Amino acid sequence: MNVPVDHLDHRVRGGWTPSGAADADLPAHARRWLSARTGLTPTDTPVAPDSGLLVSESVLPAPVRAVLADIVGAEHVLVERDDRLGRTGGLSYVDLLVRRGAGELPVPDAVVLPGDPDEVLEVVAACASHGVGIVPFGGGTSVVGGVAALRGDKVAVVVLDLSRLDKLVSVDPVSRLAVFQAGVVAPEAERMLAAHGLTLGHFPQSYERATLGGFAATRSSGQASAGYGRFEDMVEGVRLATPRGDWRLGVSPASAAGPDLRQLAMGSEGLFGVITEVTVRVRPAPVWERYEGFVVDGFAAGAEIVRTLAQAGVLGTVTRLSDPQETEVALTLSGGWKTTGVKGYLRLRGISEPSLLVIGWEGQSKDELLARRRATLRLVNGAVRLGTRAGEAWRHGRFAGPRQRDALMDVGMCVETLETATYWSKLGELRESVRDALLGSLTAGDRRPVVACHISHSYETGASLYFTTLVPRDPDDPVGQWRRAKQAASEAIVGLGTITHHHAVGVDHAPYLPAEIGPLGVGVLRAVKAELDPSGVLNPGKLV
């Protein structure tokens, strides 16, 4: 994949990039377009300095702090203001608004950094016996409140920072398995596997910061899911530290020994145990890669192409379709329309609603790649080919979205995402319902929202829809502005699709989970929670 390895400061600050790093630039032509298209009047809305944020004093009882220090070492129990603030919340739009002075932060009472799975188990047991809440923390990339330090009815709440669990435990090249500790960051996992000629193939937009344990806990899905699968498809085994003891799952590639309990760990969001190790299926690293861009006239026509590819089993490793709105945003903000002359060329080809389709293929040999490409292109009908320049432009900017969001927030934009999935027969209806909900809730006065959408994960039976919203921020109620829009969109999703395809449940989606899994399903999850975590200390206030 030739993906760069970034050694970032993974403490949460006011944006995706750490303090002092260069954010994505927002060029003058992009500001002009935003003003004309959305009614933006650019305003300077910088991240508040950490010293200006309200941080409550730690209420972690001294005896508990002493017990934790005995387990991990006093230097790995952090109660100073800046240390606690650095592991506060995730990276949702609302989280980042709060960092700009728009609300209060749920700051943990301490940060505990265990050094290995055994120490995690001891910490979990100690917190359970003292009634202290535990929030597992990897890269801090949750956008649904999944790592908010909610205390609930506990005497205190600590963040369990897993960054010291950063080892590749073993590699089995014959079985194509690798065992990682849960705190390994995705780029480091790729670097470690590359030494063995292997890849995991999991590249979500959170790739630069997120951890393998976090991928498992949230049922992550990467941009190359068509080629490598979702993360739960890659997990062959998992180890969890629970208040009831160490729990290891996965002993063979397939089993009929009852329900697959690994799936209880996948998507459990830290409620059933702290994931400490993950055994994953790995693949030989690709030798050949090719990314190409195509333009289809309208989202419906593009979705039909993707459906045909999925059902014929000839999707590219990456297959991504942007609707006309997302295509407009991407090419306008990047200057692509002007610098490439694409817009005029497409008019000549009869394309009135350009929808960008990016397809990438990988292979161990050139012949393998070309064979896969030919199989795909036989079914890409009615599309205008833009060639590798457009495909490579997408590939090289694939992880830039969060930094671009930082720059957009700096000039006063409300910019946030949400995602869902449904069956092919409902896809068009779901897209229109969510678009209408977002447009209706965000249009106000001179503020004219742009609601963009893409498909990046496709299956034989259906696909995901990933929405991005751009609208000038409401200066009087910026948090309420997005929360009302999110509620409207979530209500539009219920009954048509899943409330979340890969962002997980956390706090934001919890009100909509019962409608999806039913009261019996909620009861099953609560029963599992009660069995594994009788005192309810694991990630209070999330999922159920």
UniProtKB/TrEMBL annotation:
UniProt entry tagged with the keyword Oxidoreductase: yes
Domain annotation FAD-binding PCMH-type: ranges: 104-285
Q: Give the matching InterPro entries.
A: Alkyl-DHAP_Synthase, FAD-bd_oxidored_4_C, FAD-bd_PCMH, FAD-bd_PCMH-like_sf, FAD-bd_PCMH_sub1, FAD-bd_PCMH_sub2, FAD-linked_Oxase-like_C, Oxid_FAD_bind_N
Query: This protein's superkingdom?
Result: Bacteria
Carries keyword Flavoprotein? Answer: yes
Q: Which UniProt keywords apply?
A: FAD, Flavoprotein, Oxidoreductase
Family designation: Belongs to the FAD-binding oxidoreductase/transferase type 4 family.
Q: What is this protein called?
A: Alkyldihydroxyacetonephosphate synthase
Upper classification of the source organism reads: Bacteria, Bacillati, Actinomycetota, Actinomycetes, Pseudonocardiales
